[in-house]
Amino acid sequence: MKPKFITLEGMDGAGKSTHIDSIIATLQACGHEVVSTREPGGTALGERLRELLLHENMHAETETLLMFAARREHISNVIAPALLRGAYVLSDRFTDATYAYQCGAKGVDVDKIQLLEKWVQGDLQPDVTLLFDVPVEVSIQRLANAREPDKFERENADFFARIRNAYLRRAKENPRRFRVIDANRPLEEVKRSVEEIVSTL
Ligand code: TYD
């Protein structure tokens, strides 16, 4: 089986979204159907939940439950049907983000997240996860130059460090699935690394 479910992860400001269009173009050039989507979001209901998640303060467990509620919808309406008909699915974030943000940074119990993961996803896991990794200071600097921050992007350096560590730990625990990309390099170099990985898919 070809690896078809691809996810992009990284701290805010790591630059993952910059690469989406070129990944789609590379896969399409090989004649594949590509469904590009994102989390939280990806469905009409999921996008409404995203609005709440990114802008309303709430208990970290409420946040976790809403992330998985949006994910349930996303899997049944978008991801599963696409994979079933043989399309590639490229998702800008998925469950690793819940482990990094809600568990790693906000301290939600990992057992609770694993329970929800099993409930909502069954055996569904991404085949390949590109983790865009940058030092915390770089991420914060990039965000400072960007548009109006959402609630996650307004957090402090400690919060970002916990996210980064949680992502790197997940990558270490799942070495077959993760490809860690050093995103603290000139854009062209990062792009070349991404293309090398995508060409093997
Ligand atoms: P992001 O993917 O960075 O989108 P944009 O590029 O438009 O800012 O924003 C999504 C935010 O949601 C990001 O800060 C991480 C957060 N998030 C979680 O905290 N948990 C999750 O499970 C997911 C999917 C996202």
Give structural notes.
The radius of gyration is 16 Å and the shape is globular. It has helices spanning 20-29, 44-55, 60-84, 95-105, 110-121, 136-144, 157-173, 187-199, and strands spanning 5-10, 34-38, 88-92, 128-133, 178-182. 54% of the residues lie in helices and 13% in strands. The protein has a single domain (5-199), classed as P-loop containing nucleotide triphosphate hydrolases (Rossmann fold). By secondary structure, the chain is of the alpha/beta class. Strands 2-3-1-4-5 form a five-stranded parallel beta sheet, with helices on both faces. It is built from eight helices and five strands; from the N terminus they run βαβααβααβααβα. Helix 2 (44-55) runs antiparallel to helix 3 (60-84) and helix 3 (60-84) packs parallel to helix 5 (110-121).
Compact overview of the structure:
By secondary structure, the protein is of the alpha/beta class.
Write the layout of secondary structure elements.
Blueprint: E1 5-10, H1 20-29, E2 34-38, H2 44-55, H3 60-84, E3 88-92, H4 95-105, H5 110-121, E4 128-133, H6 136-144, H7 157-173, E5 178-182, H8 187-199
Parallel strand pairs: 1-3, 1-4, 2-3, 4-5
The structure holds thymidine-5'-diphosphate.
Strand percentage lies at 5-15%
- Provide the succession of SSEs: EHEHHEHHEHHEH
Which CATH C-level class is it? Answer: Alpha Beta
Low-confidence stretches: none
Number of helices: 8
Q: Ligands in the structure?
A: thymidine-5'-diphosphate
Number of domains: 1
Amount of helix? 40-55%
* Computed Rg: 16 Å
The major pleated sheet works out as: 5 strands, parallel
N-to-C terminal Cα separation, in Å?
11 Å
CATH topology: Rossmann fold
Q: What would you call the structural class? A: alpha/beta
CATH homology superfamily name:
P-loop containing nucleotide triphosphate hydrolases
The rough form would be described as globular
Q: Order of strands across the biggest sheet?
A: 2-3-1-4-5
DSSP, total strands: 5
How much is the average pLDDT? 95
Q: Which architecture would the CATH scheme give at its second level? A: 3-Layer(aba) Sandwich
